[in-house]
Specification:
The protein is α/β, with parallel strands linked by helices and 300 residues long. The protein has twelve helices and 13 strands. Strands 10-9-8-13-11-12 form a six-stranded mixed sheet, sandwiched between helices. A hairpin with a 2-residue loop joins β9 and β10. It starts with a strand and ends in an 8-residue tail after the last strand.
Amino acid sequence: MKVGLVIDNSANMSKQELIDCDVKKVVPISFVINGEEYYEGVNLTQDQFFAFMNDKNTEASTSQPSIEIVKETWREVLTTCDEIVYIILSSGLSASCNVAINASHEEEFIGRVFVVNNQRVSYLNKMAMYQAAELIRRGKSAEEIKNYLEDTKSEGGAYIAVDTLKFLKKGGRITPAAAAIGTLLNIKPILQLHGGKLDAYAKVMSMKQAKAKMINAVKKEIEDKFSEEAKQGMVSISVAHSVSEKNKKDLEVFMNEVKEAFADLPFFVCDSLPLFVSCHTGAGALAVGYVVDRLGILSK
């Protein structure tokens, strides 16, 4: 049985990473900005996105991929593959996962398309994609791969420090009054990503405090949940961000702080946050977290 890997761009896979994982097709996440449709990584970059979002007159919304486009992609891949593993954005952040699951139950796709609801995004989903590719190389079926990824979906997490309250207000996650007071006091919210959902974690008075609090939160979580795996080198650390090119120095400083704090653990990736997440955090967000690697991906 030949198994094909199909994904969306919720993990910001580079061209080389797509080759490494032998990804057959990428279904891009779309945005509607001022009535025009844009696709992340196709005709919309991070800097272009934030240029739009910083204009108070901009009307922007995310748009899940058309299920007809998704099904047509599946049909195309199934001409050369027997089965498909479809890994996409967390069901906690978008309805597209459940829509795809329902479509996979249609007669032409039953037993051939397996949609993974592993509730991940960003580097967490990137690890899942690498794990799927490794399991395909080991001859596992699409159903076995889906089950493995869903069984291990909670083996990772992220903490995200938000530099501006503007986008949380714009998305309705905080009230305009709370945003105004928070901005006046220079409050920096910290969000957490567990179980596929963005939730509030803490509030601090500066990005310096936010970075320290996130690093300590990750250390405690690893110690409480995966101390044995960490001793065996299975727990990797990653950084994600929505930092523009002109502010790369801030990212470099943070990277050095993270690597120093977790010097005994392997480093996985430093990636831009997917725009689907960045539309809630705004520019300047910094994230750190971990993911468990039981298949030895990082050693390959």
